[in-house]
What does this fold into?
Amino acid sequence: MQQYLYIEKKYYVLAVLIASIVVGGVLLAGKSLFSQSNGQENIGEKEIAQIQRRSKVALYIDDRPVQFLNQVVNSVHSTSAPKGEKLLPDMENVENHSSIEQANILKNDFSDELVGIYTDTMFKDDSNWGEVRWANFHKRASIVRTGKDQQLRILLPKGAHGNLKSGGSAGVAFEPQDEIYQRMTVLFEPGFDFQISGKIAGIGSPQGEYTGGNVPRNGEGFSSRFIWDDREGQYGRAAIYLYHVDQREIFGDQDGLGFNWKTGVRYTMTQRIKRNTGNNKDGILQVWMSENGGMHQLVMDRNDLRWGLDAKGRADTLLVSPFHGGSGDRYAPDTDSYIQLSNFAISTEKFSDLLQ
It folds into this structure.
């Protein structure tokens, strides 16, 4: 049972004032967008979605959600407190919530977005991403609903390869970190063509610069992305695609994860990246896989990497880059293919459902 603390009337007045400020923020967000629409009385779906997103931001104070303030306001109706006193939630519970929020660098499940096309502008305006450095999907991205959840659905067209014509690419910035856990869900829709190889998403440093044959030989940074390939004679092999100081190949190392992607299965993929100490080969990469909400299995466990040299190589960019390729027409799929991504999360702390 939730515990409550009795407070004096003056503290209740303060709580109500705070709640009033929050409501004012919501109204200002709506007024601002109305002004931006050149005084038109009819605000479109995009503007409404922006108001919703801005309202969500406005309804946070010191990283504590407005639901906490709702509890304060609702408590005035309680009859269990002595006369002249009101109720507040136990502050210890609020502090615990605050520490969890601080560990979560990024979280986006697209639940705030309208179903339909998800333009590059909408991607950049989605406040759940934070700072979006670039977003180029060229109208091939949309938001779809599956049950109670929403997904980012991306088209990889027939006969196309490379992120200019297939899928797309986005870079989302966050504060540089020595250790992070990155998670997302992935589903390849039935009929997906795993032609040779293609990229999905992952982490980079700095600013996702080290991909596409740009090798960080001087330890400037790295990238670590989930992909599919056909190595070892396997169709749709799941692998991790690495650029780092000691990479074996010019166009990155492709290390298998011990399973093949299957269509119609929703995978939860998690990777842990911990920077090496000094210039030592002791950087950590761990990868977990879960199918359709099942137990998370450790499928990669390395502690011999150099993510950077001389204090470089701190993770700072989420790379969302699903596309076919490689270069050359042989990478292009024979049919239109769709991939669904969702539940993006980046944390400085281990997710509680990871047993190992």
